[in-house]
Amino acid sequence: MDVERCHERVGAGLAAVRGRVREVALALHRDPETAFAEHRAADRLTAELAADGFEVDRGVAGMGTAFVARAGTGDGPRVALLLEYDALPGLGHACGHNLIAAAGLGAALAVRRVLDDLPGTLLAVGTPAEEGGGGKVLEVEAGVFDSVDAALMFHPGAHGWTWAPLTAQLELRVTLHGRAAHPTGNPTEGVDALAALIQVFTTLGALRPRLPTGAHVQGIITRGGEATNIVPDLAEARFGLRALTTDGLEVLAGQVAELVRGTALATGTRAEVERVRAPYAHFKDNPVLSGLFARHLAEAGTTLTEPTPGVFLGSSDIGNVSAVVPAIHPFVAIVDPDTSDHTPEFAEAAASEHGLDVMLAAAGALAHTAVDLLGRPDVVAEAWEAFRR
Description:
By secondary structure, this protein is of the alpha/beta class. The protein has helices at about 5-30, 40-50, 95-110, 135-140, 195-205, 245-265, 285-300, 320, 345-350, 355-375, 375-389, and strands at about 55-60, 65-70, 80-85, 120-125, 150, 155, 170-175, 215-225, 235-245, 270-275, 330-335.
């Protein structure tokens, strides 16, 4: 097995599929689909993979738009390329998931051409609903990554960083139950659930200054009564919680729940605190693999740096994958640092010539990193050692 020769052939393979991959990125951008409804995107991506000899399973982990495409011997390392393809409501691909999907596809098609000379299995995993649905969380729970040795993806952004400082995140639904009454006819018989909920927000204001770095709580009221002449017997809010680590998130969730129950006790209401979905874990970088990706990307002319200390870039369900297998999630800039994602400007950049060039360079770095894993047992061993450490 000549790994260097495989690297050369992967480079040629990516050049051969360059046009296909660019068109897929643009097609997804023109036709954005939101969480769990990415049917046309999943159809297009799986068709491209099947055309190059991948065996495709649809509907994995109980999600109609999730898939796993496999190629290879079945023996040796198992490397997964992760494809995201959901869009934001109203903003389209303002997080660049069309580029993530296309890069993973391009890497998969390029590596497929050398799999006959490499041991192991290559997976292209379609991961729906990163924007609030947690497709990867469901795939982890369903065992999709149980026998995987590495999970690889990139994310377009405003920074060029070797790894992603992503925090843990969850969403709570808080419901307070009171007792309805007429505000003038029998006001003393009422228990105002909305007033109690507003007190929860006020008390959270006292908690915020004591939160550790990287932690925050942000809430909205989703139900607050039906008419101004009825004391509300039910009020509801949703709160987004973030913390630097998954353990820290659990502590914060406990603090918020305790605060809500204390407020309910003080106001004579009854409280319910529920998790809207499973939490996103914080991202755990694998320096062995992110170092390889950065080296390969540098060979294509793009240099990545370590993240800026103290800067955190939200949360993602890649954190849950990184908790169970060695994983990478580098950021590669397609806009200036003063331009945020989740904006119309970022959506425009995700279909620009520069954005497409960045995607193709990232696809190459992903493909070469996958070849290192499939062709060098020492890389797999070092990645797992770093993961356990």
